[in-house]
Write a structure and sequence with these properties.
This protein is mainly beta. It contains two helices and 31 strands. The strands form five sheets. Strands 2-1-28-29-30-31-16-15-14-27-26-25-24-23 form a 14-stranded mixed beta sheet, with helices on one face. It has a six-stranded antiparallel beta sheet with strand order 17-18-19-20-21-22, with no helix packed on it. The longest helix is centred in the first third of the chain and has 16 residues.
Length: 427
Amino acid sequence: MSGSRLFLLLLQLSAFAAAADDTVCRDSAQGQVDEVTLPPPVDCDNFVWTDDDTLAHIFVEPEEVEFVAGDSFTVECKVCTRTDSSAVIRVKDIQWSKQGGELPSHARISKLDLNSRPAVAILLLANPHADDVGVYKCTPTLTKETVPEPAPGSGSGSGNGSGDATTKDGATNGNADDGTSGTVVSGDYAGYCTVKQAVACAGDDPRFSLPLADGNMLCFTVDGKAGDIFNLISDEHISVNVRYIGGKDGFSVWMGEVAVVVDGGCKVRVTSKPESVFVDSVQVNAYFSDEDVTVDVQQGDYVTIKLRRPDVQFRVEFIDEHLSFYIVSGDGFSSQVHGLLGQFWNSNHNIHVGSDQKYGILKRKGRAAALLMKQKRWPFMHGHKEDTCWTVYGKQPKGAVDWTHSAYKMKTLCQSKPRILKRLLSE
């Protein structure tokens, strides 16, 4: 970008940052968003039924959730039933389940009045974690009650004069206002919600992304050359370092090697060419566990690394001769965790967004970085995701991280801490 265009960009950013009335501030530490867009209410009475055989329609809001570890969320299942002059469909019950496994023990289900329109059951997942990822299914139990034709001369009264509902086979079920009577309806009536976890990750050429509490992502790049080694995480007992490799085209750079250093020793090392996993320098091809770490290798796909001290979990994926690294769980990180990714774990950072929602300013520890809202393809567990991301302007994360990117360079893949961090800790 030319100097004049950069000047105009910074001038525009400064202008909307100064206009407090035109900005929306999102605090990633507090998880607060000033403006919230709510989905429109479900109107069962005016719902258009397109299939004569359909007796109920299930609305799940939202249909997809991407959570940040520890941030609780809810999913609503709303059921509209069909009623006409010949039959009444009622909701007897609504259940939530998880496909391929049991509902988490910390999940809670709140059922509102099932006789309301719509009937509602709310799924709450408090303090979710990586094991909660999956597809959740909402299933209503429906009953059908046939409306009897009025007897001759009885006006609008029921056939038996008692107000009871009568099923197709003539059985009297008693007053069915509570939905507990009637014939249970068979059929595949269900709604689904896909639950994913937003995690901090590094991968591709190389791109770094971190989830924000407002549901957006913060993205930046750290350029380097083949052979460069950078520190992603540095904490009391562990470090995670990555080595860059050259791409197939001869000029691009990718992440090709990841090392997890525990108490100064290279505990786990993952390489992309060839695809290999080593624990204490011994190659591992399947499941491995000792007093320090559990490693689960899925050949040609990914490896899960779970440390016991501290209690953290990582995932490294093999993607087309390079690697992507993910922080799946960082519950055990200390307040002093650092590194290109680690420094954001316990950090308060605000994004000031302009009225056009295209430009922003990241404010963190007294520094500021210009942001652009861009459509990007960034690493995502089980593949990639094409989505918008608040992207730090430029090829290096200037203003977004504590030091210059070169300060995170390591001499060796198994070095325990960046030199600047060692010096700061010794002061």
